Amino acid sequence: MNINKPNTTHFSTFEPGQAKALAQASYKIGQVLNATVLTNSHQGRVAIRIGNMQLSASTNIALQQNTPLELKVAQLQPRLQLQILHPGGGNPLPEAMLKMLPQQTSLAPLLAELAFQAQAKQPATVPAPLQAALKKLIAALPTRQNIRQADGLQRAVAQSGLFLEAKLAAAAGGQHPQLATDLKSLLLRYLGTLRQSRFEPAATRPATRPSAQAPTLASGPVSAEVPPPLRGRLPQPQPQASPVAPAATGAIETHHPALLKQLEGALARIGLHQVATAENFNEGQNLWQLEIPVRQGNAVEIVALTIERETARNSADTEDEDAWSVNLSLDLPNLGSLQSRISMDKQGLSTTFWTRSRNNLSLIEKRLPELRRNLELHGLEINQCKCIDGQQPTAPAAKADGSLIDYLI
Fold first, then answer.
1. Which of 47, 84, 110, 364 is deepest in the core (most CB within 10 A)?
2. Contact assessment for residue 405 and residue 310, using Cβ atoms and an 8 Å cutoff
3. Cα–Cα distance between 144 and 334 in angstroms, integer?
4. Structure confidence by residue, pLDDT tens digits, 24-76
5. 72, 83 Cβ separation under 8 angstroms
6. What structural domains and CATH numbers belong to the chain?
7. How far is Cα 112 from Cα 242, in angstroms, rounded to an integer?
């Protein structure tokens, strides 16, 4: 069933004979009903109970088993349509998303400016705790060299900020997760330190000359340039960011309000990835959405990716089979935007690149045989390795044999 309105659930009968029972229920438009969720929603479907009737519903929000619902009758014909008024227990994800959407900004411009500030000589008016928090933040950013290695890429994913709350829960349970280099944790610490910092008023400081060593911080968010990372959306290329034109020394204190806003926007973007990932798992989909900021000198690049695990359930006497897919998106100065989808299961690995540049298409096609050889040297069976002129389709193509997983770069 199609869902046309947010927070609206369309019901069809769950058991034989329930259509007649619904017809006899004599519901009225605007009537409020109490219901209980019988199963976790999965792929847009959920089972609920209203009175002594069990119904199957199609819905566009995640619902948990045993959740009580208040439902208003919105439509009777041609099919009963009910609107969720108050999900019992509350689902905080939509509310959190609505709060973060207008705040979210790209991490790249902010981190590029801060990377420069971390190396530039700061005036004595910048508090030492703020300088220390800044240096820890920038030192934790992975480099291109780091993510070229499997263990480095694994660390970058783990420290992307996506898993901070899970780490905190693990720490509360007596485990010892790596928190000191988690990106979200470091951004929160820097933001908190900045809010507590007290700068000497400009009127009491001696005038300073413009310095080529101090870039100015961007004055506002760039969310209009970077689409928000919503559930079901493929990662989009983001251009490399570098420090902007030089300004007066003491840029951190001079642009204090703008810096606060950008930090809040960066944290909101990480939060949107967390919301999208949580919604995926609530719907029974093992799909992580995240971004990795990569430092290249004073510039910062964004590696945007999704990682999905699909499990094929086999018979009791055979093991279940896992298949993995990764979508990756980059925008590099010498290549421009590049997307890739890599799929891997027991039958082998398939890789597809997309580029909108004919020059890049030719360059990548020339290097594909080398990529294939290197992958085969690592013991991988290669099913497909190709590059396509254009942009990756919005919806991943269906797997031809039902077994391949896609990976996007």
1. 110
2. yes
3. 14
4. 667 888 888 888 888 887 777 888 888 878 888 877 677 777 778 888 888 87
5. yes
6. 8-90 (2.40.50), 92-274 (no CATH), 313-409 (3.30.750)
7. 5
